Amino acid sequence: MIVLDRAPALGPLLALGAVRSPFKRPGTDASFPRTHLVLPGVRPDLERLAAYERVCGFATGEDGLPVTYPHVLGFPLAMRLMSAREFPLPLLGLVHTSIEIERHAELPGGGTYDIAVHVEELRPHRRGTEAVVVTGVRVGEDVVWESRSTYLARHRTQHPGETVREEPGRPLPVVEEWRIAGDVGRRYGAASGDRNPIHLYPLTARLFGFRRAIAHGMWTVARCLAAHGVPTAAVVRAEFRAPVLLPGTVEYAATDGRFQLRSGDRVHVAGSVHPRVAQ
Question: For the chain, how are helix, strand and coil distributed in percent, rounded to 5?
Fold first, then answer.
């Protein structure tokens, strides 16, 4: 376990990860860092929190943190692990494919939290190798929030995994149509600290193979959850299936605890929200 005295800066970590990426050799049999990074005594910056709430569509001025906000607090630690020399997957091209969140209790915006992040495992995927990154948030000895994110490194595989997504028989009913502004990536980047070039401008996105800038995956799921609503104690699951080009128009669809963000038949995000059952 390594205890940090401040959150790592995301910009230098992104640059470091980019420099090291060509030398990485991904594979499920590769070793990976078992380090647990811990950042104690984290207090959310209320100005940045308000900016995050505005860009994601959450109500501002409420006491509790949005259900996705602890991911923002823990992301610098995850980036430190994934940009490390010992992490076998290249940071460039690494795709956030899913997230599962368990919120045990409300997290006040003025609270103080201990955040811990570690890489749980590498596992095969039909398109390469996925890393599972676990983030936990504690108040004292109590876990109040935890997540598991999967990040995919695409590469050729000898034995592709059987990762098959089952689509529902009927599309979810459309609730709203959203017109997404071209500056959403820059606004979310300013609020979250994640200024990956693929999200900022068409020119910087083209350097990485995209026609236009694309929305952050965590913005898309946060925007859906702001519209859907989340119980205080909840389990949230979301898969990121296709990028959202900026600017763009998408449909938010939802029913019976399930939600989607889509453009016609193309699903960008699919997820669910359910009350968490106390154990």
Answer: 25, 35, 40
Task: With residue 52 as reference, give the H or E element that holds it.
Answer: helix 46-56
Q: Distance between alpha carbon 118 and the CA centroid of its chain, in Å?
A: 15
Between the CA of residue 275 and those of 70, 193, 204, 229, 232, what are the distances in Å?
18, 30, 40, 11, 8
Helices (H) and strands (E) in the chain, counts: 6, 11
Of 195, 40, 32, which is closest to residue 129 (Cα–Cα)? 32
pTM: 0.92
Residue found by looking up tokens 């963000």 in the block: 261
Q: Which helix (H) or strand (E) holds 235?
A: strand 234-240
Which residues touch 276 (CB under 8 Å, ≥6 apart)? Answer: 102, 103, 104, 231, 233, 234, 235
**Model confidence over 187-223: pLDDT tens digits?**
999 999 999 999 999 999 998 889 999 999 999 999 9
